[in-house]
């Protein structure tokens, strides 16, 4: 059974409304009238509540068992546009869309109510023109980006989407044992002696996290959603459907418990990192030996955040970008020019060779008599330049791949409360490297 949507139309002329990010008002596409969010919300609240209640009641009614094909057909039956009567096909997660026939924003009944009712929303602040401008800026400084991509790629689609996010809060109590080390290097006439003192370092403390975001939509790539963080939480507003017209809004299809594991991993990384900092303040280095973390979870919030999704195509491939609709941070993956990469690798090898000669050979740099290929010569003349090539290539390729999943939650935590610490000397390791004398 397809239910009728609620269409947010201009109170003055009945034309399509859209939320204008620059003005933070709803604007009519036809008569150019402006309306406050609260005004439109109040106008349509009763109608929206009735539509949601009808859909929620139908969803709660026991249904006869059907085969998989029938169930799938029922799920994707969609809903009826209340403006023109067209049937809008839905995959069951699209809560707000634009009717392709009449242009009005259609709010699917029951998709933003009950368990799916968001607590908070951040309205769009940046518009479509900002997305294309940000993409052009994103291309700049990418040395390995093919020139033909900049001139030949074309934009397939730009779509503003309210993406569902779970916001988690927790206090994390951690106990971590580290292997802390202090290293001393002594240069003698015929050898280099390295002495490493090891200590068992114990740290215990707690740290609180507020509103760590995890997207709750399986449609959205996690790397893109993580990489456009952070959002400015000062702009959080109580949820209102009136912010939705002109954009797509998705409800979550991954629930709070399912997404919690990602938030937990980020909190764990930040907690261990904070405890480790208290160790490296006193030692040269520290590695984790064992850990125990306990989580005291707060109630989570369900929010919709503004994201611009942009796709381009080039040489038969599609490239997806995401831009934070509030801050303008844009991420995505760009192609790499293999010829440019090869040229850059050769250039950095030459630079690495020159630097290694100057640093390691001193006044004998570039003297053919000292250009040897024994173990030391290979390290100086080949290995050191190759290391520089690898580091440079990784950095340059990394410029092209900015949609990376978050590994920590440092933006969302308070100060570490260190409650206990003690260190015990463990043992000493000594390594000796003999020097090879060269004849003048």
TrEMBL record:
Keywords: Membrane, Transmembrane, Transmembrane helix. The chain crosses the membrane at residues 341-358, 378-398. It comes from the Bacteria. PANTHER family: FLOTILLIN BAND_7_5 DOMAIN PROTEIN, J DOMAIN-CONTAINING PROTEIN. This is DNA-directed RNA polymerase subunit P. It comes from Collinsella aerofaciens (strain ATCC 25986 / DSM 3979 / JCM 10188 / KCTC 3647 / NCTC 11838 / VPI 1003). The lineage of its organism: Bacteria, Bacillati, Actinomycetota, Coriobacteriia, Coriobacteriales.
């Amino acid at each position: 059974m397809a239910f009728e949507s609620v269409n947010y139309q201009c109170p003055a002329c009945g034309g399509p409304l859209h939320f204008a990010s620059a003005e933070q008002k709803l604007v009519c596409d036809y008569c150019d009238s402006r309306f406050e969010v609260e005004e439109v919300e109040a106008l349509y609240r009763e109608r929206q509540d009735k539509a949601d209640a009808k859909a929620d009641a139908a969803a709660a009614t026991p249904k006869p068992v059907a085969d998989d094909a029938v169930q799938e057909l029922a799920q994707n039956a969609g809903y009826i546009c209340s403006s023109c009567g067209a049937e809008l096909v839905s995959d069951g997660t699209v809560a707000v869309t634009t009717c392709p026939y009449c242009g009005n924003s259609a709010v699917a009944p029951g998709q933003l109510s009950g368990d799916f009712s968001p607590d908070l929303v951040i309205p769009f602040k940046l518009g479509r023109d900002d997305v294309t401008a940000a993409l052009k800026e994103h291309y700049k400084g990418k040395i390995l980006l093919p020139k033909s991509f900049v001139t030949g790629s074309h934009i397939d689609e730009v779509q503003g989407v309210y993406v569902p996010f779970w916001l988690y809060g927790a206090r994390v109590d951690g106990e971590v044992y580290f292997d802390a080390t202090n290293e001393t290097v002594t240069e003698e006439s015929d050898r280099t002696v390295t002495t490493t003192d090891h200590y068992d370092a114990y740290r215990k403390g707690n740290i609180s996290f507020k509103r760590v975001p995890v997207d709750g939509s399986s449609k959205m790539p996690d790397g893109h959603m993580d990489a456009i963080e952070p959002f400015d939480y000062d702009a959080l507003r109580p949820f209102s459907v009136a912010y939705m017209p002109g954009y797509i809004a998705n409800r979550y299809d991954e629930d709070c418990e399912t997404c919690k594991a990602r938030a937990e991993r980020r909190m764990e990384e930040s907690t261990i990192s904070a405890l480790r900092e208290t160790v490296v303040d006193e030692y040269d280095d520290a590695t984790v030996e064992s850990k125990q973390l306990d989580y005291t979870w707060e109630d989570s919030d369900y929010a919709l955040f503004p994201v611009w999704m942009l796709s381009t195509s080039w040489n038969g491939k599609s490239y997806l970008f995401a831009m934070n609709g509030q801050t303008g941070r844009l991420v995505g993956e760009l192609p790499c020019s293999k010829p440019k990469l090869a040229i850059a690798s050769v250039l950095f090898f030459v630079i690495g060779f020159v630097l290694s000669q100057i640093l390691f050979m001193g006044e004998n740099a570039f003297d053919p008599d000292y250009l040897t290929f024994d173990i030391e010569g290979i390290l100086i003349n080949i290995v050191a330049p190759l290391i520089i090539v690898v580091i440079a290539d990784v950095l340059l390729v990394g410029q092209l791949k900015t949609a990376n999943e978050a590994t920590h939650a440092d933006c969302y935590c308070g100060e570490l409360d260190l409650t206990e610490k003690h260190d015990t000397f463990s043992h000493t390791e000594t390594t000796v490297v003999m020097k090879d004398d060269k004849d003048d």
